[in-house]
Amino acid sequence: MTGSVTLVGGGPGPVELLTLAAVRALAAADVVLFDRLAPHDDLAELAPRAELIDVGKRPGHHAIGQESIQAIMVDRALAGADVVRLKGGDPFVFGRGGEEVLACRAAGVPVRVIPGVTSAVSVPASVGIPVTHRDVSRLFTVVSGHAPLSEEELRNLAGLRGTIVILMGVTNLPSITAGLVRHGLGADTPVAIIERGFARGQRTVVSTLSTVMWDAAAHGVAAPAVIVVGDVVGLAVAGDADAQAALDAASLSG
Ligand code: SAH
């Protein structure tokens, strides 16, 4: 009999931020395919019956390609296994979850999706930054910085005058920030870079659009990080002493 595939959003790291549905799916799984950013430290306990397959990228190791991941998922399900595909954050936020759902459907494998807590909202929240706030910002845009943004994208983003949340943006940060200023955002617009959210060594660098590329280089900022651009950064008063100190130094909090 054909098994199934369940795409599970694993949240931003801590086991406490898994949903109950995620915990139940893991407990029932025969096979778990997990990513580097998915919470995997406690998998042996959470999925005691399952074969655990690491398909994540690691520095110096070859990542298993997307096609191979989909092939393993589909093959195992067709052979009768209940497969959990555990992903970081929410499966449908830059997670290629949509492609995996289509691959299952194409193969006639039953597939469902369990949403997860996305890093785009939860990592800023972990340092007291609300992505929206009454009278400060009534919209937020989540954008991938993996590839450089086009002039039109930069112009439109700047024109919205709302919070901008950038994932996978460390490498392209200089061109993104310069582009936003070129298209009219104030050079003193606050920027926060939150590295390794919810993990040991979490760190927040607070700066402005015009200075952040120097500050990021000076601090050796590295992925994974969530970058927040907008006045909501100035609300980061609670919960993170580093952010507070940096805010005070940049005179953004008063
Ligand atoms: N589906 C995921 C995002 C996948 S893209 C989600 O909803 O969260 C991967 C990017 O997410 C990373 O490059 C980084 O920008 C961000 N990210 C994910 N987890 C993170 C964490 N714990 N701390 C900081 N950034 C994180």
Describe this structure in words.
The protein is of the alpha/beta class and 254 residues long. The protein is 32% helix and 20% strand. The chain folds into two domains: 4-117, Tetrapyrrole methylase, N-terminal domain (Cobalt-precorrin-4 Transmethylase, domain 1); 120-242, 2-Layer Sandwich (Methyltransferase, Cobalt-precorrin-4 Transmethylase, Domain 2), CATH 3.30.950.10. The protein is built from nine helices and ten strands. The longest helix has 13 residues, at 66-78. It is elongated. The N and C termini lie far apart (64 Å). The chain binds S-adenosyl-L-homocysteine. Residues 12-13, 37, 87-90, 93-95, 118-120, 123, 167-168, 196-199, 223-226 line the site of S-adenosyl-L-homocysteine.
Quick structural gist:
The protein has helices spanning 20-28, 43-46, 66-78, 97-107, 119-126, 151-160, 173-182, 212-219, 241-249, and strands at residues 4-9, 31-34, 51-54, 82-87, 111-114, 140-144, 163-167, 190-195, 203-208, 225-229.
Task: Break the fold down into its secondary structure elements and pairings.
Elements: E1 4-9, H1 20-28, E2 31-34, H2 43-46, E3 51-54, H3 66-78, E4 82-87, H4 97-107, E5 111-114, H5 119-126, E6 140-144, H6 151-160, E7 163-167, H7 173-182, E8 190-195, E9 203-208, H8 212-219, E10 225-229, H9 241-249
Parallel strand pairs: 1-4, 1-5, 2-3, 2-4, 6-7
Antiparallel strand pairs: 7-10, 8-9, 8-10
Helix pairs in contact: 3-4, 6-7
The structure holds S-adenosyl-L-homocysteine.
